[in-house]
């Protein structure tokens, strides 16, 4: 479970494998690796099937797009589900969809109904299941492991997948070459059942809220708003999106490189994918050591340079051995980059919104990957593979340089959890949970000597309250009584007002105290709660007003 924050040394000390000491995390993580093994086998089978039945380079590249586009479309919705409903149940639903879609694909292949668009369609459905599962699983990491282990746990998610990558594609190539496509699809469907059974068996505690669930519209709005107001999350998403767009050429075009440039078959394709995974595993195991000695921005720059070198090498070589070495370098850069941006998003997100911030992150980076697959596939089809790979290398160097505009910030501690302690004030009217909009006004008396300090604190207060749900925040000065300042904001409903106060952290409460210390009145600042009523309504306008002293 998430615990109290530790010192910087506490966060630096745990090794990459420390989260595996937690039984629930270990069980789901291991089951996920089994599923990933099947998914990689299926990727090899689908990519090779597409390369053999279609003469279009673009259709081959779109296999990668079909597996990433659902995350772009569904992730924000899935993140809202993960923050409002049982994350375990959302994971189970997503895994169930993967099993059903994979079983249907297997059946169609067995019956001989093979068509490029049918292949892309089932690949899309399987990815839809993953889009439901992934934000809930990523958000559950902070519920299952201790907060100090979150960076290691996020790294393990990449390490685990890329460990499987060392054997999955090669195994997929062997199965396809030796037993045929039907065997590969059948085995994949069976592997998807493993995490489904594990999630059914494992249960973990999640901090419950006394407040009702948010509507999906409000949940998505609050998630997007929080993300837009977090400079750390925005920087991580921007770099991740650009990195995905530029680097996906390595994986999206690899079947074409094997077929046209290296003259290999499924086994060669699987072997090269294994080389990619080997480099990724090495980087993942060394990630904790790298994080202690290098800043996250420096690691991101090195990752971009490594992937650029990989892409350029693939453009110039006709040797499978050289290509394998280049892919190992690219795999190391790949896992280093994704671990860095993933950790940045996790640590910058409090528990109440982490599912949504992660889903927005997934949506945009997978959108970048899908767009990159289309872009580099189009370049390869209309010009040449060499042009596409060289273009990818140049774009990756630009992503490294983008650190000047979107630097990844260093953070050892995760965003503090909200206090979730708030005694709702009594009101004179019968206010229902959905009553609203609620207007909050706080009046301060500020002397001229404290004015600059007050305005600085109120700018910070606006940021704090707006990111947890306050809307239309304003600060007014009384023209007739210049010492009097009024802070005003709204929430859509009474429940949203309560939810806003439940989301405030200890640091946010301390900010309130610092503002109150500048108040020059004999009594604490006066807070007024009102409920708006439209004047055009046939009902008689009414207003519930409550004056609450601020301590």
UniProtKB/TrEMBL annotation:
CDD domains cross-referenced by the UniProt entry: MFS_MefA_like
Ranges for region Disordered: 524-551
InterPro entries, alphabetized: MFS_trans_sf, TM_effector
Keywords (A to Z) from UniProt: Cell membrane, Membrane, Transmembrane, Transmembrane helix, Transport
Gene3D superfamilies xrefs: MFS general substrate transporter like domains
A single Gene Ontology CC term: plasma membrane
Record flagged with keyword Transport: yes
Any Pfam family the entry gives: MFS_3
PANTHER family noted in UniProt: INTEGRAL MEMBRANE EFFLUX PROTEIN-RELATED (PTHR23513), STAPHYLOFERRIN A TRANSPORTER (PTHR23513:SF11)
Protein name as annotated: MFS transporter
Organism: Mesorhizobium waimense
């Amino acid at each position: 479970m998430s615990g109290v924050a530790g010192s910087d040394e506490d966060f630096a000390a745990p090794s990459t494998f420390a989260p595996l000491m937690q039984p629930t995390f270990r069980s789901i993580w291991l089951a996920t690796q089994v599923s990933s093994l099947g998914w990689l086998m299926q990727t090899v089978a689908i990519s090779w099937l597409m390369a053999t039945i279609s003469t279009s380079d673009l259709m081959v590249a779109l296999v990668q797009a079909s597996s990433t586009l659902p995350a772009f479309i569904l992730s924000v919705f899935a993140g809202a589900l993960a923050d409002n409903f049982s994350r375990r149940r959302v994971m189970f639903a997503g895994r169930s969809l993967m099993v059903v879609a994979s079983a249907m694909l297997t059946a169609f292949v067995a019956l001989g109904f093979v068509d490029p668009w049918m292949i892309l369609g089932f690949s899309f459905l399987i990815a839809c299941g993953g889009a439901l599962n992934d934000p809930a699983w990523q958000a559950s990491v902070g519920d299952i492991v201790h907060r100090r282990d979150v960076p290691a746990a996020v790294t393990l998610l990449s390490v685990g997948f890329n460990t499987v990558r060392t054997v999955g594609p090669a195994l997929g190539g062997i199965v396809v070459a030796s037993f045929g496509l039907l065997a590969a699809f059948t085995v994949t469907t069976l592997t998807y059942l493993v995490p489904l059974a594990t999630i059914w068996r494992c249960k973990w505690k999640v901090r419950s809220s006394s407040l009702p669930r948010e509507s999906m519209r409000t949940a998505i709005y609050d998630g997007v708003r929080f993300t837009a107001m977090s400079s750390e999350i925005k920087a991580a998403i921007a770099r991740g999106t650009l990195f995905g767009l530029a680097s996906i050429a390595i994986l999206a075009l690899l079947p074409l490189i094997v077929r046209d440039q290296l003259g290999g078959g499924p086994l060669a394709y699987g072997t090269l994918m294994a080389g990619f995974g080997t480099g990724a595993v090495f980087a993942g195991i060394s990630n904790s050591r790298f994080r202690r000695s290098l800043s996250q921005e420096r690691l991101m720059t090195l990752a971009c340079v490594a992937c650029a070198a990989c892409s350029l090498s693939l453009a110039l070589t006709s040797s499978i051995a050289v290509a394998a070495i280049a892919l190992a370098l690219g795999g190391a850069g790949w896992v280093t980059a994704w671990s860095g941006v993933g950790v940045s998003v996790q640590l910058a997100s409090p528990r109440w919104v982490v599912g949504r911030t992660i889903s927005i992150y997934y949506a945009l980076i997978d959108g970048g990957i899908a767009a990159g697959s289309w872009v580099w596939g189009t370049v390869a089809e209309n010009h040449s593979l060499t042009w596409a790979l060289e273009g990818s290398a140049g774009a990756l160097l630009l992503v490294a340089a983008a650190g000047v505009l979107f630097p990844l910030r260093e953070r050892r501690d995760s965003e503090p959890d909200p206090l979730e302690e708030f005694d709702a004030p009594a009101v004179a009217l019968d206010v229902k949970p959905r009553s609203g909009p609620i207007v909050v006004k706080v009046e301060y008396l500020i002397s001229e000597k404290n004015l600059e300090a007050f305005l600085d604190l109120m700018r910070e207060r606006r940021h704090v309250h707006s990111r947890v749900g306050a809307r239309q925040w304003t600060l007014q000065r009384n023209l007739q009584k210049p010492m009097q300042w009024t802070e005003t904001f709204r929430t859509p409903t009474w429940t949203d007002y309560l939810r806003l106060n439940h989301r405030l952290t200890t640091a946010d409460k301390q900010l309130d105290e610092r503002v109150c210390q500048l108040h020059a009145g004999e009594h604490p600042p006066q807070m007024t709660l009102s409920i708006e009523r439209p004047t055009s309504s046939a009902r008689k306008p009414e207003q519930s007003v409550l004056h609450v002293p601020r301590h």
